[in-house]
Specification:
Number of helices: 11
Strand order of the largest sheet: 3-4-5
Number of domains: 2
Strand content: 15-25%
Order of helices and strands: HHHHHHEEHHEEEHHEEEH
Helix content: 40-55%
Largest sheet: 3 strands, antiparallel
Structural class: alpha+beta
Distance between the termini: 63 Å
Number of strands: 8
Shape: elongated
Radius of gyration: 22 Å
Length: 275
């Protein structure tokens, strides 16, 4: 019993150290590289005193960077202020698991008949839209939302937890961060769309979760009303503060509850915006 209590205490302490907003898919590569460099300098200095001390400094530094995303507090502000945008751009990555050579969101949505051509644009297929919004109406509480997420991710529903925070909606599995959305409305849109898309794609079950997520997120671009309050959706531009820099985005927000439903960098989205 004492061993179990001690283990729980250690796990609780580690959980307190974790900063999921700066690790996992949210890990900032420029910040990580900067902190690893600082750790290397500290370890080299410690080596002049003692190899054992250097090893300890390196281990503690690596652990801090792994759990928290940074070693030195304020690193995000330092990189934002002193790293040129051209250098930061070298670290930019596409969405996790996205292979532009074999997978394209637009073509997959067309294949699923989720969207249909409308002149030079794409519109939601009316039958798909009706089924999608019908699914959204069933996701009115945390229990139903957790169940839908479990079906999408193929995880145990009892170990899933949903957490609304300012500017984001976070999913946890067995205490570990597994993903986040711009808002609860964006989350509801994604998990509600999953079974509707699955019924239209015969390879949905074999599609990796990362690809499914890209497909579902792309659908949010076509929302015309909020999944949670029913308000109208409006597109506009905004400035977003990331870990290391500020950048312009095209964003879709509910005009009633102000939930953010979709957000993409400005220079990558203008051609894809629906009329």
């Amino acid at each position: 019993m004492e061993g179990t209590t001690a283990r729980r205490g250690r796990e609780s302490f580690v959980d307190q150290l974790r900063r999921p907003e700066y690790t996992g898919e949210n890990r900032c590569i420029p910040c990580t590289v900067t902190n690893l460099g600082i750790a290397g300098v500290l370890s080299a200095g410690a080596f002049l005193l003692s190899p054992a001390l250097a090893a300890g400094v390196a281990l503690l530094s690596a652990t801090a960077i792994y759990l928290r995303g940074y070693l030195v507090p304020g690193t995000p502000e330092l990189t934002k202020r002193y790293f040129p945008a051209r250098l930061l751009a070298l670290f930019d990555e596409g969405p996790a698991g996205f292979d532009a050579g074999s997978f394209a969101v637009e073509s997959e949505l067309l294949r699923a008949a989720a969207v249909v051509p409308a002149g030079d644009d794409l519109n939601l297929d009316p039958a798909f839209a009706a089924a999608w919004y019908a699914e959204m109406e069933t996701l009115t509480d945390r229990a139903s939302q957790r169940t839908a997420l479990a079906a999408l991710t193929e995880l145990d529903v009892e170990a899933l937890r949903l957490d609304a925070r300012p500017g984001r909606f976070v999913a946890w599995y067995d205490g570990e961060w597994i993903g986040q959305w711009e808002s609860r409305s964006a989350f509801v849109a994604d998990v509600a769309a999953a079974p509707v898309v699955a019924a239209r794609l015969d390879d949905w079950e074999t599609m990796p979760v990362a690809y499914r997520s890209e497909l579902l997120a792309g659908l949010r671009l076509f929302l015309d009303r909020c999944p949670t309050c029913g308000g109208d959706v409006a597109f506009g531009t905004d400035v977003v503060e990331s870990c290391c820099r500020s950048y312009d985005v095209v964003a879709a927000n509910c005009v009633d509850c102000d939930a953010r439903l979709f957000e993409v960098p400005l220079d990558e989205s203008m051609a894809a915006m629906p009329a």
